[in-house]
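Hallway conversation turned thread

IA: we were arguing at lunch whether anyone had actually written out Glutamate--tRNA ligase end to end. Turns out nobody had. So, for the record, here is the sequence (472 residues) and right after it the structure tokens. Reply here if something looks off.
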Amino acid sequence: MIRTRFAPSPTGFLHVGGARTALFSWAYARRHGGRFILRVEDTDLVRSTPEAVQAILDGMQWLGLAHDEGPFYQTQRMPRYREVIAEMLAAGTAYHCYMQPDELDRLRAEQREQGRKPRYDGRWRPQPGKRLPEPPAGIEPVVRFRNPVDGVVAWDDLVKGRIEVANSELDDLVIARADGSPTYNFCVVVDDRDMGITHVIRGDDHVNNTPRQINILQALGAPVPLYAHLSMILGDDGQKLSKRHGAVSVMQYDDAGYLPEAVLNYLARLGWSHGDDEIFSMQQFCEWFDLDHITPSAAQFNSEKLNWLNAQHLRRCDAGRLAALVRPRLAARGVVVGETPSLAAIIELHKERVSNLNELADVAEVFYIDLQPRSELLARHLTPEALPLLDDFAARLAEVPWQAAAIAALIKECVARHGVKMPKLAMPVRVLLTGLEQTPSVDALMALFPRTTALERLARARCVASSAPRSV
């Protein structure tokens, strides 16, 4: 069975790069009927925080990337890591090193001065016929992995292709510090082995860790997973992704009014493609996704494309679900949503004209508040020529059936009787009802309001217009 994992370090929020890694790992497991494991690599006790852990969990939940196992926390697995280190020491694949940090710093400085690659020189590495010095008193040793000295470590990366690294380029990695705490690369290896991970899908910033991890896995006699290293995501200016490009917490996309499926759809297209398909559901994505179509080149983040995709998903979304998402946004503004007009009906009318949930909340808000159109809009549209037309329309409006078709017929009748074009009536009505100049058709808009509310807004706003400053 295919087993993938997402293993974030809780030193910050879940950003778009991590979310894409999680998405690809999740989708690959779903595509092949496997298991997706969530693992929190929280061994950096200085930088890891409970708030960051919760931010990651919240982001995964909002995106809908449900894990099959976990979350597992490395800080809860310390006895297991110590157990494996003891086994490696007994087997001779690891050894104690008493070299102090200041000694290592001096050695590396000397190597740099000589134009050599700075690295540990193996002075405490046991070798046949080699006599080691006496361990210094009062010094707690680190534990180093006994890396092979000959040959190469190689793997066929499922994104980047064949990668080979000479073992002579790798020194003996510290796998446990002097205080006994295990290091990152070692914990990853033990976790991947114990959890039966078959495919490691992660960012290409981990490529340099891979040869060391493979060597440790082989020393443990463990199967080596297949690796797929995803290229980095750049901003639309070609620079490293930063907050101004969109490298923010995925929960900020929730705050900004994006749908999770739109964010996932967009992330899926960052470095992966399925022909010319741009808009798709996560069910379709899981059916299509494989690692063969991931490009090894860097992907570029484009906020305009994300906005367009979000608008497309809004149009396809059920108005009832959108109403449930917009309602708490209105509540946060102190807007009480009444039974009439129907919030779902408002959203159904407007959802093809907006690009995010906050814009939907903006247009829905005007139906439930004590609206006061801006004076400059009143001055622009409630001209002396428009007022008689509005009076005639309002008087007849009380008598028509309260349906869009009947209201549309009345509008056409009024403009024809007064010999004016449609905007002469439609624009003042828009402003009086909503305080906006851009809305769906006036007849459909007005039919959403209770008749009494519509008439009150027309009458009250006209009274205000009588004392409003006029444009010249």
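OS: looked through it. The chain is about 45% helix and 10% strand.
IA: good, adding that to the notes. Residues 1-76+231-316 form a domain with the Rossmann fold fold (CATH 3.40.50.620).
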